[in-house]
């Protein structure tokens, strides 16, 4: 498989080069040159596979022989052996017609582990094959940093530095990052906001001399390996549904921020998985809800919510979807993105909006409604939803029609967002792995929010 850019100005490259490039050199996003099409027989033959076996089949389609199959198998097996549940991503029945797909059984209790455990092992593989050190630099508002650190901690040939805004991530998120005591991990707690952290990262990546001296690599969700890893659980969840549920129209409801997770569902559908509707759940930062309902893509005012990992105004993966909406026409995507940059807004024509609405439905969940959903399901079903998952479940309740089956993606364990859940008087017992974090020493350095201050730290660390 080769990879091309949504803006058409990158010569086709292989899988490993695509992973290393991250953001495409022309400013676009990398996508596979074609989407593999699965026959009904193939789907049938996959339906009894374990999670890792299924992941190997799907990755094989996108990696081709660039990584020999036995080595790819080892990377996949190692990535999912760290999950606490034997099924890796189990499906639980919530109510008649509604299921939750639990994606939080990895090391940091959030769904990002599914992609970042694999990406960490891939970077380890590339480092061994090329005999070079991989330097990873990233910024986080919470979940990504912890997941990325867990994905590479202790791995030879990799060094990772993660910036987080000082005092502005949840307590559990901070502990998950900063209690890691491996020599290849550096946590910088930056005096500033998440936006400051992201700006510094962007500018350091744009500093060509600095970037090349250290071969800086990214871990953010525009990396195509993350999308591919996330397509696996759509297939796996579908196969886990009881026969009579599979016979109905099956929707997936996805708590959405950067559009990475739901784009993986779109890709699974394009490959041939019979998904009825992809339900796009947002919180009060609802730019994508407005896009699906009205065809207008325009950032609004930032709102802090109970689901902070979805507090995003400009969805970094959205361009990938535009590429397919416009029939893989890179010139059209380039024009739209230029217009967006110039005017801060894009409006799509009626025929395109009809195409969007054939695949997606959307619902934006208000803050109180999110907490209501948590308390209702806790009281009536005895299941504790985290605030992100609650957005997905609330959207499913709103939008699924009678007789349909909806799988709501559960993107985090409720223990990660106890501060919000406690607002409704619900007490929870932390899993022992999270409880243990409170006893551990923390390793982080508080630094000022200037590029020079960060550079000084990196030069010493790398
Ligand atoms: C990252 C994240 C999301 C949003 O996923 P995207 O791929 O950015 O749309 C939702 N929930 C949780 C808990 C997350 O960490």
From TrEMBL:
<dbReference type="InterPro" id="IPR037158">
    <property type="entry name" value="Thr_synth_N_sf"/>
</dbReference>
<feature type="modified residue" description="N6-(pyridoxal phosphate)lysine">
    <location>
        <position position="112"/>
    </location>
</feature>
<dbReference type="InterPro" id="IPR051166">
    <property type="entry name" value="Threonine_Synthase"/>
</dbReference>
<keyword id="KW-0663">Pyridoxal phosphate</keyword>
<feature type="domain" description="Threonine synthase N-terminal">
    <location>
        <begin position="2"/>
        <end position="80"/>
    </location>
</feature>
<keyword id="KW-0456">Lyase</keyword>
<dbReference type="GO" id="GO:0004795">
    <property type="term" value="F:threonine synthase activity"/>
</dbReference>
<dbReference type="InterPro" id="IPR029144">
    <property type="entry name" value="Thr_synth_N"/>
</dbReference>
<dbReference type="Pfam" id="PF00291">
    <property type="entry name" value="PALP"/>
</dbReference>
<dbReference type="Pfam" id="PF14821">
    <property type="entry name" value="Thr_synth_N"/>
</dbReference>
<dbReference type="InterPro" id="IPR004450">
    <property type="entry name" value="Thr_synthase-like"/>
</dbReference>
<dbReference type="InterPro" id="IPR001926">
    <property type="entry name" value="TrpB-like_PALP"/>
</dbReference>
<feature type="domain" description="Tryptophan synthase beta chain-like PALP">
    <location>
        <begin position="99"/>
        <end position="405"/>
    </location>
</feature>
<protein>
    <recommendedName>
        <fullName>Threonine synthase</fullName>
        <ecNumber>4.2.3.1</ecNumber>
    </recommendedName>
</protein>
<comment type="similarity">
    <text>Belongs to the threonine synthase family.</text>
</comment>
<dbReference type="InterPro" id="IPR036052">
    <property type="entry name" value="TrpB-like_PALP_sf"/>
</dbReference>
<dbReference type="GO" id="GO:0009088">
    <property type="term" value="P:threonine biosynthetic process"/>
</dbReference>
């Amino acid at each position: 498989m080769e990879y091309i850019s949504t803006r058409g100005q990158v010569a086709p490259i292989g899988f490993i080069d695509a992973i290393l490039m991250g953001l495409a050199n022309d400013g676009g996003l990398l996508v596979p040159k074609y989407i593999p099409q699965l026959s009904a027989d193939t789907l049938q033959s996959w339906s009894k596979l374990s999670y890792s076996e299924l992941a190997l089949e799907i990755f094989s389609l996108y990696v081709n022989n660039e990584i020999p199959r036995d080595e790819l198998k080892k990377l996949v097996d190692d990535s999912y052996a760290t999950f606490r549940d034997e099924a890796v991503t189990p499906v639980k029945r919530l109510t008649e017609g509604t299921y939750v797909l639990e994606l939080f059984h990895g090391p940091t209790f959030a769904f990002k582990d599914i992609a970042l455990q694999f990406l960490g092992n891939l970077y380890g593989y590339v480092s061994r094959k090329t005999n070079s050190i991989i330097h990873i630099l990233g910024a986080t508002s919470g979940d990504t940093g912890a997941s990325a650190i867990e994905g590479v901690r202790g791995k030879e040939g990799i060094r990772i530095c993660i910036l987080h805004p000082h005092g502005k991530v949840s307590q559990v998120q901070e502990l998950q990052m900063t209690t890691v005591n491996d020599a290849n991990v550096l946590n910088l707690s930056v005096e500033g906001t998440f936006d400051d952290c992201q700006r510094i990262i962007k500018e350091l990546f744009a500093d060509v001399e600095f970037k090349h001296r250290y071969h800086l690599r990214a871990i953010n969700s525009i990396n195509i390996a993350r999308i591919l890893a996330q397509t696996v659980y759509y297939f796996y969840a579908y196969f886990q549904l009881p026969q009579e549920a599979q016979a109905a129209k099956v929707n997936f409801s996805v708590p959405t921020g950067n559009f990475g997770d739901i784009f993986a569902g779109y890709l699974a559908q394009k490959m041939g998985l019979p998904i009825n509707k992809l339900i796009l759940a947002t919180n009060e930062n609802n730019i994508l809800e407005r896009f699906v309902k009205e065809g207008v893509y325009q950032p609004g005012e930032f709102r802090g919510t109970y689901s902070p990992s979805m507090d995003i105004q400009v969805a970094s993966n959205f361009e990938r979807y535009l590429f397919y909406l416009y029939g893989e026409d890179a010139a059209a995507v380039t024009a739209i993105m230029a217009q967006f940059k110039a005017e801060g807004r894009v409006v799509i024509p009626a025929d395109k909006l009809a195409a969007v609405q054939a695949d997606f439905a959307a619902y934006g969940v208000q803050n109180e409604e999110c907490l209501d959903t948590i308390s209702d399901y806790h009281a009536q079903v005895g299941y504790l939803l985290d605030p992100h998952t609650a957005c997905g479940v609330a959207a499913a309740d709103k939008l699924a029609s009678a007789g349909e089956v909806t799988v709501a993606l559960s993107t985090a364990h409720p223990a990660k967002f106890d501060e919000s859940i406690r607002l409704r008087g619900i007490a929870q017992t932390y899993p022992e792995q999270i409880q243990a974090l409170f006893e551990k020493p923390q390793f982080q350095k508080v630094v000022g929010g200037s590029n020079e201050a960060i550079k000084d730290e990196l030069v010493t660390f790398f």
